[in-house]
Known about the structure:
The complex is a heterodimer.
Chain A: E1 3-8, H1 17-20, E2 29-30, E3 34-35, H2 38-46, E4 51-55, H3 61-67, E5 81-85, H4 103-109, H5 111-115, E6 121-126, E7 129-131, H6 135-145, E8 149-158, H7 160-163, E9 167-171, E10 177-182, E11 189-201, H8 202-215, H9 220-228, E12 234-238, E13 243-245, H10 249-261, H11 263-270, E14 287-289, E15 294-296, E16 298-300, E17 305-306, E18 309-311, E19 314-315, E20 320-321, E21 326-328, E22 331-332, E23 337-338, E24 343-345, E25 347-349, E26 354-355, E27 360-362, E28 369-371
Parallel strand pairs in A: 1-4, 1-6, 4-5, 8-12, 14-17, 15-18, 16-19, 17-20, 18-21, 19-22, 20-23, 21-24, 22-25, 23-26, 24-27, 25-28
Antiparallel strand pairs in A: 2-3, 6-11, 7-13, 8-11, 9-10, 9-11
Helix pairs in contact in A: 10-11
Chain B: E1 7-12, E2 33-34, E3 38-39, H1 42-50, E4 55-59, H2 64-71, E5 85-89, H3 104-109, H4 112-117, E6 122-127, E7 130-132, H5 136-146, E8 150-156, E9 166-170, E10 176-181, E11 190-199, H6 200-212, H7 220-230, E12 235-239, E13 244-246, H8 250-258, E14 286-288, E15 293-295, E16 297-299, E17 304-305, E18 308-310, E19 313-314, E20 319-320, E21 325-331, E22 336-337, E23 342-348, E24 353-354, E25 359-360, E26 371-373, E27 378-379, E28 384-385, E29 390-391
Parallel strand pairs in B: 1-4, 1-6, 4-5, 8-12, 14-17, 15-18, 17-20, 18-21, 19-21, 20-22, 21-23, 22-24, 23-25, 23-26, 24-27, 25-28, 26-29
Antiparallel strand pairs in B: 2-3, 6-11, 7-13, 8-11, 9-10
Amino acid sequence: xxxxxxxxxxxxxxxxxxxxxxxxxxxxxxxxxxxxxxxxxxxxxxxxxxxxxxxxxxxxxxxxxxxxxxxxxxxxxxxxxxxxxxxxxxxxxxxxxxxxxxxxxxxxxxxxxxxxxxxxxxxxxxxxxxxxxxxxxxxxxxxxxxxxxxxxxxxxxxxxxxxxxxxxxxxxxxxxxxxxxxxxxxxxxxxxxxxxxxxxxxxxxxxxxxxxxxxxxxxxxxxxxxxxxxxxxxxxxxxxxxxxxxxxxxxxxxxxxxxxxxxxxxxxxxxxxxxxxxxxxxxxxxxxxxxxxxxxxxxxxxxxxxxxxxxxxxxxxxxxxxxxxxxxxxxxxxxxxxxxxxxxxxxxxxxxxxxxxxxxxxxxxxxxxxxxxxxxx
Amino acid sequence: xxxxxxxxxxxxxxxxxxxxxxxxxxxxxxxxxxxxxxxxxxxxxxxxxxxxxxxxxxxxxxxxxxxxxxxxxxxxxxxxxxxxxxxxxxxxxxxxxxxxxxxxxxxxxxxxxxxxxxxxxxxxxxxxxxxxxxxxxxxxxxxxxxxxxxxxxxxxxxxxxxxxxxxxxxxxxxxxxxxxxxxxxxxxxxxxxxxxxxxxxxxxxxxxxxxxxxxxxxxxxxxxxxxxxxxxxxxxxxxxxxxxxxxxxxxxxxxxxxxxxxxxxxxxxxxxxxxxxxxxxxxxxxxxxxxxxxxxxxxxxxxxxxxxxxxxxxxxxxxxxxxxxxxxxxxxxxxxxxxxxxxxxxxxxxxxxxxxxxxxxxxxxxxxxxxxxxxxxxxxxxxxxxxxxxxxxxx
Lengths: 377, 395
């Protein structure tokens, strides 16, 4: 049994446009030193998937920089390894190869590439879900069930607001999907939510893509899955551990903060035996805490110099917090500088932000104060 | 097949480091952890890379497993090259003989084959025992300018300590007229740092002659350098100014770690123009609990701090539980300090567990001696390890 991975790096970009203005969904920084792609990528690597294709669309410079040769995931291989597939527009076509928007369109655009794959199974994943899932187990379950496709789901309690951003799955007692509701407008309560991780056989995917081209289908969920529920057998694979879908700035903020307030959730992502989350190495020195530092309930990456007060924060690599500065409930991206006596509350500072001495900024958990890349305040 | 190199480095990393006692029981001295996430050998290796030297032979002998594993293919230092790169050079069995490295000169002698592959004009000899940042390319420039056969890096040491070092007595132009190994009455305070640049041809000539001499100790300081001086070869000193620390003893290893701390540390790791590279463990960021406190301290990935840490350097994966107190310590990887435990003025090697309410070491200000716990020690709940003790997991 061999499996190949396909990761969609751009699919949900619009949900969190502040952070994806300069990057892909896949390269959004998360939890001090990770990028969102590290989660699907590590899940695949930890399940011995040794060929991974990352489909990308636009804004992919940060993604290419992050992945590099793939060596940090042990994926710099001579056979297999990580391959980035940027949009491919042939020189002589009459512009019919427009940039894709959905997963299915992305797959259609790499049809020739998919036709050449030789592995038995395919695992597809998006980059908007944070979870540490055993894909090997999911593939085994898929093979055993003989289903056409298997979808990872996660039981979640939804409000009307969050339900609107999720795809809900209803399955029968045997785990066969009986209904798919994409972004329902009027749902509240507990439901199985799609984690956008799909397993199927390579031949099935090849056939599906050819079929989609022939029928000019646009969306996998709407044009294929929903219409073929009765003819095909689609099964769910329930992920029991922690899973967080990031579909807005508010959720992004909340899920970062959750890692501090809820040690169990933190452990079920980062402290799973034999399944570490891997990321790019930056060669930072350790973090230095000054004589007057006061740090509580925070996650801090390496290479920082902290001399002020930090509470309930996620601090990325190379951040400086000056003397007398007070930073609370905030997320500071790589190389942010907070000068002496500045005060921040509920701030999300993108890379290389500079906060001058004595400046006070405050947002709210539902609308964090977002400072874009290289902003000087 | 081998591309010619102007200068290659040979890094002597076989030393046992016997004065580090339990810390080098299973690890060669160059592989001893330092500064939270480094090993001692990262400093000469990073210096090489930052100086534009891309071919490094690492000579190993004592307990090479950790060192071999650490160096691996050299990728962290960008030394996984097609032309050159890093090679680990252990002693080997040859057709007519097989032997351990008998001395520094003999170790290089046994690897003349390696040097000749790259036909370098110059060979840089280094040791893996020191913490410093040095641009070897400047030294090489001086070496070429002086038209020297050998250039030795020197450091000004306090006159009263000079008798502990190899002392080079020089003319005003920097040329060396005399070398004295640990002299009783030193004439100068130019201490040799054990860093040499040789013209490769001359080096090989002298190594072969030294090997033929049965009475030789096969040592650079004792034999090769005095022989070259005796023959009237051109030897020059190269003055190094900056931080340099021999971490050969427990006390100096502790001090060198402490030199990393402070707003303007004596030894600065944050200089982006001279980065120190290291092999990396993928661990999550470090985490502060509700009661965590860290003052004048360095923390790195995987640490979990819910107690109080002062004036200390912690390696990856160290856990300081609620109510625990750590002061003036160097703590290696994956050590757990349980609730209410107190650790003062100590070096704690990896995988050690200090039980609840246990006490290890004593306050430095009260004149206590340093305490050392070897790898994998288990200190039971409530136990007391008195100051100045050195414990081994086997006992």
